[in-house]
Amino acid sequence: MKKRIGLFLVFLISVFVILSCALLSNLDNPEGFIDAVVDTAKPLAEAAKPIENQEEYYIGREVAAIILGNYKLYRNPKLEHYLNLICMTLVINSDMPEIYNGYRVGILDTDEINAFATSGGHILVTRGLLECADSEDALAGVIAHEIGHIQFKHGIKAIKANRATVAVIESSGNAMIGKEEKKDLQFLQNASEEIVTTMVNSGYSKTQEYQADKFAVQLMAKSGYDPMAMCEMLKIMSGKQENDHRGFGKTHPSAKSRIIKVEKHAQKLSGEYYRSARKTRYSKINRK
Q: Which domain holds residue 247?
């Protein structure tokens, strides 16, 4: 609550400073002052607008494009189809089975252990992460976690915060240097792209990661997957994380801290999940 109040006060002070700049620069021109205030307020008004479903998709597609600028796609049609079937099994059992342009899973060609989710429904998992999985249920845990990020709109929340920050800076620029020089503020767009890249590289907050974990085990159980498989996956990843500080080790809380919380949630959902049939299917997919 204190943090929200602090951010609100910063916002109010920023608006006051912006309007003051507009007034000082147009003391002898009342009409110019009105125009300046309108130009100054536009970015703030745009930042306050809700992000619609279609806009979420295009924002997410841009984030996915940034990721794919750093990693190549690993093309394995059989494996891609398998992962997307798991994804569809999960989302049809969720509270948000349909989003603009749907969900899709792709594989990144790197041994780095990591996964990403964008607001556009893109789920990107690395070869390194897939190699940690020893069952279909474990893969379902990874995908369910990323679906959680999408459905909780974690990426959009980060972008909204960035949008508000950029709007204040842009409004300040409009007021101080004038509309004619607005084109000189092109660097703000570049800064925005850098912030999106930073979000991808540093990951979501611990609170959001734990929220996605809890969502994942609940969705797994609802879809017929054993939620304890997520603990198994995290334990394998924990062993590899100790010697690899790229990707997962950099963008997620420690696997050990997540295991404690996931086990607590999964134990409440214990039951018979009939994993044998899925083990056979998984073995066929992984046959060289």
A: 53-154+202-285
The β-bridge partners of 123 are 105, 117
User: What does the alpha-carbon distance between residue 230 and residue 104 come to, in Å, rounded to a whole number?
Assistant: 21
From CA 59, how far away is CA 119, in angstroms rounded?
7
What are the tens digits of pLDDT across the range 94-150?
999 999 999 999 999 999 988 999 888 999 999 999 999 999 999 999 999 999 999
Expressed in angstroms, the distance from the first to the final Cα of the chain is 54
Provide DSSP, 193-213.
Answer: HHHHHHHHHH-S-HHHHHHHH
Sign of CA dihedral 33, 39, 40, 45: positive
CA dihedral 253, 258, 259, 264 (to 10 degrees): 170
Closest to 21 measured CA to CA, from 40, 46, 7, 47: 40
In a domain, 34, yes or no: no
Number of structural domains found in the chain: 1
For 214, what's the count of Cα atoms within 13 Å in the CB-facing half-sphere? 10
Per-residue pLDDT reduced to its tens digit, 154-207: 887 766 655 544 444 444 344 443 444 444 444 334 544 654 565 666 777 889
Q: Classify residue 47: in a domain, yes or no.
A: no
pTM of the model: 0.73
Cβ contact 116:200 at 8 Å: yes
Separation of alpha carbons 120 and 70, rounded Å: 18
Query: Would you say 260 and 206 are in contact if contact means Cβ atoms under 8 Å apart?
Result: no
Q: Is residue 32 part of a domain?
A: no
